[in-house]
TrEMBL record:
SUPFAM superfamilies: P-loop containing nucleoside triphosphate hydrolases. Residues 12-248 form the ABC transporter domain. GO terms for molecular function: ATP binding; ATP hydrolysis activity. It comes from Sphaerisporangium rubeum. This is ABC-type branched-subunit amino acid transport system ATPase component. GO terms for cellular component: plasma membrane. Keywords: ATP-binding, Nucleotide-binding, Transport. The keyword Nucleotide-binding applies. Signal peptide: none annotated. InterPro entries: AAA+_ATPase, ABC_AA/LPS_Transport, ABC_transporter-like_ATP-bd, BCA_ABC_TP_C, P-loop_NTPase.
């Protein structure tokens, strides 16, 4: 199974990615591309290799084989900091906010990582407040995130990502832990913001409703290999995908 052929202007292209941990071949010859202004999803049963792939793409792990191009530059062997500064930002499966800082401080804290040697943050407080307002979070700006609902914490993380004007946002299971209504609201919000700002997103998600309503292109991993790639309609009908998910008891 190969990915959609790379096109000029693709934000992210990975080809032939393999990664093993001891005897476990977590990824085998995986390729994917993410086009600008689209939401692309990566799905697969538990243990399929999704997190490993995200860690390879973001530079947390180095692949054993394969190449990664980001905005036309070969970044396959660069560190996570360098990729973040180049505009590749991510959220994590678990919410990562500092409870001792306010919501406003949390979203501004992300900015420092893009400025080496302690320069001024790229985004101003005014912009951060405007973004928080847009996400319905202004009333929480000066409170600790510890008191927020899970869905609001996810929104805070998204604001933190957006303040860096990223070229690519990787959302790692953003809807995990949300109830169906929260997930639905989150989907609508992400879809709206993505359209308005022409964002490029790679979404890793278990919740099929979320994936099917947001993504225009879906990659499916199973046992470390890409078993399907296509539009939501194509992937939903794909025999191998159905089998992989039924086999995993999902
Ligand atoms: N640091 C590691 N050391 C050893 N094995 C690992 C490591 N990370 C992942 N693996 C193994 O690689 C395979 C892929 O795991 P990975 O976490 O990438 O899957 P996943 O699709 O993200 O799963 P989930 O949906 O459960 O998060 C699994 O067999 C896992 O046990």
């Amino acid at each position: 199974m190969t990915s959609r052929p790379a096109r000029d202007g693709d934000v992210l292209t990975a080809t032939g990615i393999s990664k093993s941990f001891g005897g476990v071949r977590a990824l085998r010859d995986v390729g994917l591309t993410v086009s600008p202004g689209t939401i692309c999803a990566l799905i697969g049963p538990n243990g399929a290799g999704k997190t490993t792939l995200v860690n390879v793409l973001t530079g947390v792990y180095t692949q054993d084989a394969g190449d990664i191009t980001f905005k036309g530059q070969d970044i396959g062997r660069t560190g996570a900091d360098r990729r973040a500064r180049a505009g590749m930002v991510r959220t994590f499966q678990r919410v990562r906010l500092f409870p001792q800082l306010s919501v406003l401080e949390n979203v501004l804290a992300g900015q420092w990582s893009r400025r080496p040697f302690g320069g001024r943050p790229a985004a101003t407080k005014e912009r951060a407040l405007r973004e928080l307002e847009e996400f319905g979070l202004l009333k929480h700006a000066h409170r600790s995130p510890a008191g927020l609902t899970f869905a609001d914490c996810r929104r805070v993380e998204l604001v933190r990502c957006l303040l860096g004007d990223p070229a690519l946002i990787l959302l790692d299971e953003p809807a995990a832990g949300m109830n169906p209504e929260e997930a639905q609201r989150f989907v609508e919000h992400v879809a709206e913001v993505q359209r308005e700002r022409d964002l490029t997103i790679l979404l890793i998600e278990h919740n099929m409703n979320v994936v099917m309503s947001l993504a225009s292109w879906i990659y499916v991993l199973d046992f470390g290999q890409l078993i399907a790639a296509g539009t939501p309609g194509e992937v939903r009908r794909d025999e191998r995908v159905i089998k992989a998910y039924l086999g995993a008891g999902e």
